[in-house]
Design brief:
There is one protein chain. By secondary structure, this protein is an all-alpha fold. It has a single domain (72-303), classed as MetI-like (MetI-like fold), CATH 1.10.3720.10. Helices cover 72% and strands 2% of the residues. The protein has 15 helices and two strands. It has helices at 3-6, 17-20, 24-46, 63-70, 73-104, 109-120, 127-138, 143-150, 165-189, 193-201, 206-217, 219-234, 238-242, 251-260, 264-303; strands at residues 50-52, 55-57. A two-stranded antiparallel ribbon has the order 1-2. Strand 1 and strand 2 (55-57) form a beta hairpin. Helix 14 packs antiparallel against helix 15 (264-303). It is globular, with a radius of gyration of 25 Å.
Length: 304
């Protein structure tokens, strides 16, 4: 038998539309830079100007950025960051085991299809129409207090459920839960079941399978879920207005008030600050994700 016959057949390379039209990628990148990146650059540059007496002063300065930290907006920024991070962590704690059960648990196909359908329904409804319902439920004369009083659990209505930080937290949790669970579910669902079965055959406990197999392979979905939740949470406007009632101000409220006062540099600075915070937290999360993956790999090497 000749040496040529011993060589395995080479798989043909898969052709993509980019091979037939190599100009598609540069055109797409050009459009992306023009439509997305360029406005962000202009927005960031605009934040270094000032507005006085409803007139723009096109002289670069740091006065607008300094006003973000010397005024009450810094307190608003800290509150926004705290609420957004709290909501994101709670969503992750609730979404990961739910996605794991949905993808690798013992639920039937009918149950899985029903749950996925219920998770996608909110995307077809306006956010304000979904949030305003909770005002009639959490209000002092709302459904919860009415039921508790009818059952003689309480003697007087519970105050403070609406127009408070817990109400804003609750509204954001309800709004952004699909954005967290769906990417995690998709990442866990594509994990090959033979890897889990092989780990079990080798004597791995369920905890070892979770931390050594499922969690490292699902990290891209976790990262996507965190990004899809943290970004909107930092820029949320409907929940603080409808459930906070003006008592829980966030950065979106500051942006709206600055826009109403025609203080466009302040709007640009606040928006740029939100984008910078999202970018920094995303970079930190990616670093922690890689660090976790490296530690997991080193631990498995030590165990083998």
């Amino acid at each position: 038998m000749s040496d040529v016959a011993l060589k395995p057949a080479r798989r043909p390379a898969m052709r993509t539309p980019l091979d037939r039209s190599p100009w598609l990628l540069p055109v797409f990148l050009g459009v992306w830079l023009f439509v997305v990146i360029a406005p962000l650059v202009v927005l960031f540059a605009y934040s270094f100007f000032e507005s006085r007496n409803f007139a723009m002063i096109y002289r670069p300065s740091l006065a607008t950025w300094e006003s973000l930290f010397t005024s009450g907006r810094f307190e608003v920024t800290v509150r926004t960051l705290r609420i957004a991070l709290t909501v994101t962590v709670i969503e992750l704690v609730l979404a990961f085991p739910s996605a794991l059960w949905l993808a690798k648990g013992g639920c039937s196909k009918t149950t899985r299809a029903l749950v996925l359908a219920l998770l996608t329904i909110p995307f077809f409804l306006d956010l304000s129409s979904r949030i305003i319902v909770w005002r009639g439920i959490l209000d002092e004369n709302g459904l919860i207090n009415h039921v508790l009083m009818v059952l003689h659990i309480i003697g007087s209505p519970i105050q403070g459920m609406l127009y408070s930080e817990p109400a804003v937290h609750f509204g954001m949790l309800v709004s952004y839960f699909p954005m967290m669970i769906l990417p995690i579910y998709m990442a866990i669902n594509v994990i090959d079941d033979t890897l889990i079965a092989a780990a079990a055959d080798l004597g791995a406990t369920p905890a070892r399978i979770l931390f050594d197999v499922i969690l490292p392979l699902s990290l891209p979905g976790v990262l996507a879920g965190v990004v899809f939740t943290l970004g909107p949470a930092l820029a949320s406007w409907i929940e603080p207005n409808m459930l906070g009632g003006g008592f829980v101000n966030m950065l979106s409220n500051s942006v709206d008030s600055a826009y109403s006062a025609l203080r466009y540099p302040v709007v640009a600075a606040l928006s740029s600050f939100v984008i910078l915070m999202v970018g920094l937290m995303l970079a930190l999360l990616m670093f922690l994700t890689r660090r976790f993956a490296d530690l997991s790999t080193s631990f498995r090497n030590l165990q083998s």
